[in-house]
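Re: duplicated header lines in exported structure tokens

Our pipeline writes sequence and tokens for each protein into one text file. With two proteins the header for the second block appears twice in some exports. Here is an export where it did not happen, for reference. First protein block:
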Amino acid sequence: MVGHIDSPHVRSTLVMSGQTVAAGMAQARRAAEWMEGHEREFMALVGCCRDMRRRNKRGYMRDRAKIWCADHGVSVEGDGFRFANALWAALARYIALYDPALHDMLEMHDSAIDCVGLLPVSWHDFGKAA
């Protein structure tokens, strides 16, 4: 695929099929659209993850990030402080690309997005090291 960024998560059990690729493309488009308009919120998530790493807080990162966002007034989805699994899967991958030191604590599981990769974002070259 032209203009894609390889996922930092290596798919292990998810079988690639037409349906999975279609779901992955929809997930990649939705995540890229969110990323384009939410650089500040993304950087806040990176800061949240860095702080948790510094304090050695591991496990349930999606839930920890959701609570952190609610406590700090950072809205990730249009209707408040929640993360759909599909959006968090993509954001975790963007976070791992932005700061590879966070990869090991993000607990990534196979996702349809791993079949297609991430899409470029205008404000950062996630295909290269930060």
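Second protein block, exported in the same file:
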Amino acid sequence: EQLAKKNKFLWNLKGIIDRRKIEVSYLGNHYNSLSKERIREIDFDYILVSSTLYFEDILKELIELGVEEKFVIRGGGLYLIE
């Protein structure tokens, strides 16, 4: 969100998926988590996986749901350095 506010990382959040029910606010919009099966309903360019610990497990699940690996980004390394 910090990068987007500074126009250094332009992207739109289309939804969040988590194993538990969570709510996220991003750039003034509120999102409730979706079930992983709903990934097929989202028109995405890329999927950003924010978990570094479980990245490989999540990637495997996404592939099983029909997502191509080339569209999955490991997001743990995105930081704003000033």
